[in-house]
Design brief:
This protein has about 260 residues and is α/β, with parallel strands linked by helices. It has ten helices and twelve strands. The longest helix is centred in the C-terminal third of the chain and has 16 residues.
């Protein structure tokens, strides 16, 4: 029997109505200036669309010219709602968004669930928004794909990098790391801190600090993989919630970065 992971933050982080959600995502993508890079991997933010959707769109717009070849997405993000050790696979076959169903890469899961650090956890995925908010963008940009969703808990950079290496694939596989940057700093301070974080990523330096990015562990795993595969990072867009829909006394930082 097929099992499903239903949306947890539809109507909160993005519209729960399929027609409106599709219009929202397409409108954000349409506002992005043409990007020429052909990414193997992306770092994208995961706040509500009113806050970080425009920055996320800058990343997903780079996929337009290669959408036909991408058949598989490896999606990593940090755990926000459930504390655990390791990297969590879901215990379902299909993820659901208001735009429809996405089949999981069950073949990879069956063949690689024994990898060190991997576990299966319903609780890790059930209410996690970091992965969920990426799904409508992927569904709007890509034609057809299977998903390998991984929630990263307390673990080592080496563990994440090894799992990424096993899931790396070829040109048919896209890696997406979901992460916001600094949290709840004053506007000017956040700008300085986030610029330092962005520069570190662009220089392929490990972050090793969750205060700089909530997804620092998946980012660092990607950086290790990028070094091995000789990928070049490119900043696509950045801002913070004080630039979009929030007050400037305490802001959250966002950036979209492509690795090609």
């Amino acid at each position: 029997m097929t099992s499903f992971r239903e949306p947890a933050v539809a109507g909160l982080f993005y519209s729960a109505e399929a027609d409106q959600l599709a219009k929202d995502v397409q409108a954000m993508l349409a506002r992005v200036e043409h990007q020429t890079c052909l990414p193997k991997a992306l770092i994208v933010p995961h706040a509500g669309y009113v806050y970080s959707g425009s920055v996320a769109a800058a990343a997903y717009a780079t996929l337009n010219s290669i959408a036909n070849r991408i058949r598989r997405v490896v999606l990593l993000g940090p755990a926000h709602r459930f504390a655990f050790s390791g990297v969590a696979l879901p215990d379902v076959d299909v993820f659901v968004s208001p735009l429809g169903k996405i089949k999981l890469d069950v073949e990879w899961i069956q063949n690689n669930h024994h990898l060190p650090g991997l576990l299966v956890s319903r609780a890790a995925h059930e209410f996690e928004h970091a992965l969920e908010v990426q799904l409508p963008f992927l569904q709007c940009v890509l034609k057809s794909f299977v998903l390998l969703p991984l929630v990263v808990g307390k673990t080592t950079i080496e563990t994440v990098a090894e799992i990424l290496e096993n899931a790396w694939g070829g040109d048919e596989t896209l890696i997406v790391v979901s992460s916001d940057l600094s949290h709840y700093l004053p506007y000017g301070v956040a700008q300085q801190v986030d610029q330092q974080t962005i520069q570190a990523i662009l220089q392929l330096q490990l972050l090793a600090d969750s205060d700089r990015a909530c997804g620092c562990m998946p980012i660092d795993g990607l950086i290790m993989a990028a070094r091995k595969h000789h990928l070049t990072p490119q900043l696509l867009d950045s801002c913070n919630s004080g630039d979009t829909a929030g007050e400037q006394t305490q802001v959250v930082g966002y950036a979209s970065i492509a690795f090609h």
